[in-house]
Amino acid sequence: MAGERPCPLLSVHPSRCLVDEKFEVLCQHLLPALQVTLHALLQTEDGDYWEAFGHYLSDAVGSVRVSEDASLGGSYSGVEPMGLLWSMRPVPGSKTGLRLRKKDVFKPTDVNISLYEGHLNEGFKDKHPLASVVAQRWYTAPEVQRVEVKEKGLKGTLFIPPGPGPFPAVLDLWGGGGGLVEYRSALLASRGYVSLSLQYIGLTGDDGKPCIVGNDYFEAAFSILKQHPQVCPDRVAMMGLSFGVSVTLGMAAYSSVIKPKCVVCVSGSHVMPVNGSLADVFDEIKKNVKNSRFDEEQRVIWRDLLLPIPDDSSKKVEMGRIKCPVLLIVGEDDQNWPTSESAEDMKQMMKQAGNSHLLTVLSYPETGHLIEPPYSPHIKASNFILHETRNKVVVLWGGHTVPHSRAQEDSWHKTLTFLEQHLYSNDRVASRSNL
Question: Any idea where the BAAT/Acyl-CoA thioester hydrolase C-terminal domain is (predicted)?
């Protein structure tokens, strides 16, 4: 009928994109000055539900544009184009200690975005939305290849970008949680890098018993990556997170096989027995278990296990031996590792050795340990399985949601810039694969 107002329209653009890309959420055909709530909901591969929501007021023409309009409340406030993602948290009634991590990187994460009348804080499933739309978030660009790596006793996954290659490459080492974590490697491949995600903690031998790998394990992984026909052999980097930083720095400083073009270190330390193996590192940490602390919610704080930073040179990587560019990413509220103290000590060591020009430090206030790809939810604390006893504890990682989320976005884009600067030749622009 002539003069009738169209039905409310909710759109997201692009509706299909990589997880490190922004999207635009737009509401149209509303009454002017109407109170509405935008609600985002996703279900994880474990069946858990996470949500975020913002309160908005439509403008004079009945529209809400999330990239320009301020949320007046909800799980985030202010003008936050990606607040519907980074402020996500488990829905009320969920299990405690959850952490959102992607397992199958070849399946998208479907984010269901709905528009409701009024400023709501709960009961979304019992309300009928004015409009809904689905946004797909991917870790893999089209035609990225996944190859399991088992040769030389390794356990890892190789991700290869689309196109003829050869490409620069990254050896990707996660932290003390162990297991084979693939989503960062998949995203790196989507950005133009062959990436090998390597499991090195939590491995078992043929007898089913846990086994601790030696330096030759990492050297074999680096060699396989370097010799791959799709890899530029002189353009291979290492990237470590948490415990993986100790391995990365140790290999870069002392290995005669591993000669990375550059290294990226996220939320880690250089403190480790220089002439030891991973087993020696774990033994050193066990000696300091007495330094564990707990907050008022009985969440364990492990940052003191490596403090004070030792003066004994045999207990920390000799940073002066590193001859390649180093990017350190530090959360100043890291409650799991003494990353700020470690970064300051590394900086002084490199200054004294005359190689401080190789060091770039990105230090973020109110940022915790788990610095993930952009727009990932901030995880202040989560469950953690102790490898030896298989007991479960809740670990405090630290950080505050807004600054931590800013740090995740900023550090990821600066990481890509750093890798492009040091791994790609001057006459070639890094691949920016889009869906």
Answer: 216-424
Q: Of the listed 369, 378, 404, 422, which one is catalytic?
A: 369
**CA distance linking residue 400 with residue 33, whole number of Å:** 32
Is 242 one of the annotated active-site residues of the chain? yes
* Catalytic residue check, 369: yes
State the Cα–Cα distance between residues 420 and 430, nearest whole angstrom: 6
Instruction: Quote the CA–CA distance of 310 and 314 in Å, as a whole number.
Output: 9
From residue 186, give the alpha-carbon distance in Å to each of 380, 407, 423.
Answer: 24, 21, 18
pLDDT tens profile 338-349: 999 999 999 999
Give me 389's structure tokens.
């006893």
Contact 300, 235 (CB under 8 A): no
Q: How many Å is the maximal CA-CA distance in the chain?
A: 83
**97-122 burial code (b ≥16 CB/10 A, e <16):** bbbbbbeebeebbebbbbbbbebbee
Q: What is the number of domains present in the chain?
A: 2
pLDDT tens digits for 85-134? Answer: 999 999 999 999 999 999 999 999 999 999 999 999 999 999 999 999 99
- By residue range, what is the domain housing residue 64? 9-138
What pTM value is reported for the model? 0.93
Find out whether 257 and 171 touch, Cβ atoms under 8 Å: no
> What contacts 417, CB < 8 A, 6 or more positions away?
none
Q: State which of 121, 138, 155 marks the end of a domain.
A: 138
Mark whether 228 and 121 lie in a shared domain: no
Say if 2 falls within a structural domain: no
Options 58, 75, 242, 382, the catalytic residue? 242
CA 172 to chain centroid, in Å, comes to: 12
